Amino acid sequence: MASQRDVKNKIASVKNIQKITRAMEMVAAARLRRAEQRIAALRPYADALGRMTRQAADAAGAEALRLPLLREHEREENVALLLVTGDRGLAGGFNSQIIRAGIRLAGELGEEGRQTRWYATGRRGVSSLTFRGNELSGSYTGFSDRPAFADAREIADDLMTAYIDGRVDRVEIIYNAYVSPLTQHVTRQRLLPLTSAEVVGEGEEAASPGGQASPPRRRATVDYEPEPEKILRRLVPDYVEISIYRALVESTAGFFGAQMTAMRSASENAGEIITEYTLQMNRARQAEITQEIMEVVAGAEGLS
Asked: What is the dihedral of CA 262, 266, 268, 273, to 10 degrees?
């Protein structure tokens, strides 16, 4: 059995760790509130921009398909995967579940004869992919705690340039969508080409699951000035940028929620360990007292 002094040292160490985890929980909770406010302000804007893009595509009709970002490549050989992770850990499985989802998707693409080009945000994603021997076409770190729109614009510019230049034929993003501090859903979104993901020009007929063509979408009832295709040329890059920015903000909130939950669990586990060590220390003290009593009794009997 460990001595009373050893158990006291263990209790002191666990208490110090508990103080750190409680402090990190409080910091994460404060940052989570700010991140939730950013999400609440961003979601309506992102949804409205998506509606505007679809309406402009409806109004542009076949002209919309002339835009490079709306035109599908003839062959889909290279797929870009953007993994959105955090710069730090201590958040449970927040980062690892994104890495696993990306690796699993890359395996599926490989079975289909497609190659994967990796893009990652956050030091955890960059280091994990590099450790696995994957070459990164783009890495972006240092802003996961508070991403700015300029960060999303930089990522979007690289991805759109790669798509227009033909270096990639499809772009997908994987991130943690924020639901609550306890729940973050791994979300996969197709960014490029937008034709398959979001918009269908006038006169295009979308195939239904049964193979039958559904009626064409109605033309928007909005008068555009200048022409809708010129407006769409501006809206499509903005839509890609805001989609990436939304993923970054959602991931930030999800990270702080996961970290707050993980640190709360760690603090509770530390409390349980302290309780167990305290019982162990009491048993050690009782054993020492019993041993001293036995020695005193034995000495008294020896003198009598």
From this structure: 160
